Amino acid sequence: MSNHDSLQLTFDKLFQSEADAIFRFCVLRVSDREQARDLVQETFVRLWQTLQKGTEMTNARAFLFTVAHRLIIDWYRKKKAVSMESLSDEATDESYDPADEGTLPDNLELGSEGRFLMSKIKELNDSYRQAVFLRYAEGLSPPEIGKVLGISANAASVRVNRGIQELRQLTGYDIMESEQPSPSNT
Amino acid sequence: MNNSRFTTAIKQLQSIRMNPEEKSALHASILSKIQNKQAGGAAEPFVIGEAAQPVLSPWSIQSFREWGSKHRIASIVVIVLAVATLDGARAFITHGTLDESAPREIQALAAPATTAGIKSVKTIIKETGAAVTAVSSVPTADAATTSKATSVHSPSKAR
Lengths: 186, 159
Fold this sequence. Notes:
The complex is a heterodimer of chains A (186) and B (159).
Chain A: H1 3-30, H2 33-52, H3 60-87, H4 112-121, H5 126-136, H6 142-149, H7 153-171
Helix pairs in contact in A: 1-2, 1-3, 2-3, 3-6, 5-6, 5-7, 6-7
Chain B: H1 2-14, H2 20-38, H3 58-70, E1 75-85, E2 88-95, H4 104-110, H5 121-128, E3 131-139, E4 148-157
Antiparallel strand pairs in B: 1-2, 1-3, 3-4
């Protein structure tokens, strides 16, 4: 098997196993199905480029979520810049504010309980939101969440725990500390 | 009880995914984009040829056949366009001929099979100068069960 064939095989396997999780991560944050597909596309193009360079990748799943997370932030920055430019010719503020992440898309096929939970996750403190989602919806470990969010594993663990405490109060769910989230691998 | 609600909610969240046609089209689109970047990232058309085949989902082929049968047309030409965009290239699928008489309804049929899939083919061509890179004939006769993709020998500007 040639290097290219091997690369293609690895890429295809990762696409099949992870594309839906990355799509879910994106669509729940940008609230636009088409935009989410574009972000998934760019995420996997970056994966290909990294694999092609022969860079050792110990955790492709964490890599994909990390790239997608950064692309989403970039997308919001650009969107904000364009939006502000349309109002004024003055210098624009390109900072990303997690609060900009809007509501769930109406046309998203999601049960009422899932929609309720996601709406409450969006109400969480900004720094807890992604940590809780990645831990419980995607089954990422604290070290993996740390990589995605650019923080230490300990800090990720703290965010998950505090986020869950806040989520309990918001939802009334009795989320058990010992509960082991299962990876969503779709 | 409440923990059960949490579990249900998580399972519902995890059920969000792309539909198979959407996922297949996205996969093909990514490979096309990669191929284009490897070729230097220029707006030159890339030949998809046989690679166009997986892009044609069973759903879209069935739609083409039904439309062709209804209008007593023996076969429909499916054309894959390489469209240069600011962030690279995407593959769009369309069908029918590219002349003025191409019916609008058949253009609409292609929309779900594309990644962007909103603009009409003629608009895409006009705005981007897209080039036809592959042609696939989808037979509509009952006896025909397969479609065949062939590369265009010499990619030509559509307009």
